[in-house]
Design goal:
The chain is built from 15 helices and 11 strands. It is of the alpha+beta class and 444 residues long. The protein is globular, with a radius of gyration of 22 Å. Bound molecules: zinc ion. The site of zinc ion has 7 residues, from loops.
Length: 444
């Protein structure tokens, strides 16, 4: 790993109700920027900063706040509370509920439109992709790397193609069977698979990054699919790229047929060679989707018959209380356990980002820009009471954001906790030696 650094890594989501999430109006491309500030010691820290569209409007890496409008933050935490209640995974049940250090901190950091945003520090993060709070955080971290890799590749004269891979499915099929089938078929179409794809991939591609996504629809059940970014070698023509895709699609479809799923539909397949701008837009959309666009419609605005993401299942479960949604979310949780959501083909990352180690999901979930300025400290007993109360913990963040000075923020939080008999909070300025202000020992 290189020098200690940081990067803000989420950005403000813009309204986009496209369920597939990979289309829609452009969001400013990810751009690279240096960060001047030194950060706290963190194993996940890397040597570059990725900001969105130049000045980091709303771009920041905070573990608990995300970049979306305030409503999204509430939705994520609401979903997290539902996940706590129903999950079968211990880590998920503890996520953001268990205190990692001595205290939970409320921290302020720069946000969009010159407003400071508040977030929590000192909490345990489960680091699961399917977690309503950690999942988006992990996706944002991953997207920053992908955006950088794409820029590097175009600078080296290569191009990137975006592809979508779907399979026939029907209601009643188990998600885990479908995921296994999809992965087997994709392998057949990959560099370690059938002879045709293998040969053309070696000739025309430097590797790829593939992501698994899953939605569930009322008519046809689970719909796992893959999105790929294929890094086309410099000099590869459009005709050669499309030939590669044709051969891969045939191998993919043949494998699905052999496995008894039926042939892959052309309509469900997509392959597009992207310009650098389009490639960065795809990544920005992926981020936007991950940080909450898909939640905006959950429970209220979605048309009947539309597919839902696992996060939407949680939101709907909270609002509508349907047992079926609970069952589906748990099936997804179990089916995804131990599976990788995003994968770089061997060697690709080392070639494009040689100095940037890939973070584990846990490291990605835990990473922070280190720019938080602590305004209040909440003891663990108080934190537990806050989770047990009818209020979501983010009420404390909202309070902090409503005030202009750190002293007022700390007071507002303390008053709230006292008024609701939840315990006490300590203003950070009071709690520590003034010389160490903003750089507390042992708090991450
Ligand atoms: Zn989590």
């Amino acid at each position: 790993m290189g020098r200690a650094t940081s990067r803000p890594s989420s950005h403000r989501a813009q309204p986009d109700h496209c369920p597939a999430g990979m289309r829609g109006p452009g969001i400013p491309p990810l751009a690279r920027a240096e960060h001047p500030q030194e950060v706290r010691n963190d194993p996940g820290r890397r040597s570059s900063v990725l900001a969105v569209g130049g000045p980091p409007e709303g771009a920041r890496s905070e573990p608990t706040g995300f970049g979306g409008p305030e409503d999204y933050r509430a939705l994520f935490w609401q979903a997290l509370r539902v996940a706590h209640r129903i999950t079968k995974q211990k880590r998920q049940a503890f996520c953001r509920r268990v205190v990692k250090g001595d205290v939970v901190t409320v921290e302020m950091r720069p946000g969009a439109r010159d407003r400071e945003r508040a977030s929590f520090g000192g909490l345990f993060y489960c680091g699961r992709n399917g977690c309503p709070a950690c999942g988006p955080k992990i996706a944002v971290e991953r997207a920053a790397d992908i955006a950088l890799a794409i820029s590097v590749w175009y600078a080296q004269g290569g191009r990137v193609a975006f592809s979508t891979w779907t399979m026939p499915h029907s209601r009643g099929q188990r998600l885990t069977e479908l995921l296994d089938g999809l992965s087997k078929a994709y392998r057949a179409a990959g560099a370690g698979g059938n002879k045709g794809p293998k040969k053309l991939l070696a000739a025309y591609s430097a590797g790829e990054i593939v992501k698994v996504e899953t939605t569930v629809g009322p008519t046809n059940g689970w719909h796992p699919h893959r999105h790929g970014l294929t890094f086309l070698q410099p000099g590869t023509t459009d005709a050669q790229a499309y030939e590669l895709d044709r051969v891969r699609f045939d191998a993919f479809s043949a494998s699905l047929q052999r496995q008894g799923f039926g042939e892959a539909s052309e309509k469900g397949h997509d392959f597009r060679i992207l310009s650098l701008g389009q490639a960065q837009e795809e990544i920005a959309r992926y981020v936007a989707k991950s940080v909450g666009h898909e939640l905006a419609a959950a429970g209220t605005k979605r048309a009947a018959g539309e597919s839902r993401t696992p996060l939407e299942l949680l939101i709907d479960l909270d609002r509508l209380g349907l047992e079926e949604d609970r069952r589906l979310w748990l099936e997804h949780e179990a089916a995804m356990h131990g599976r990788r959501v995003l994968r770089w083909s061997p060697g690709l990352r080392r070639r494009l980002l040689p100095e940037m180690r890939e973070l584990s999901d846990q490291e990605a979930a835990d990473s922070t820009d280190g720019l938080g300025r602590i305004v209040a400290a909440i003891p663990p007993e108080t934190w537990r009471r806050v989770w047990r109360s009818k209020h979501l913990p983010i009420v404390l963040l909202d309070l902090a954001e409503q005030h202009d000075s750190d002293q007022e923020r700390a007071q507002a939080i303390a008053h709230f906790l006292e008024a609701h008999q939840l315990g006490t909070a300590v203003s950070w300025a009071e709690a520590i030696d003034p010389h160490q202000k903003g750089n507390p020992p042992g708090v991450t």
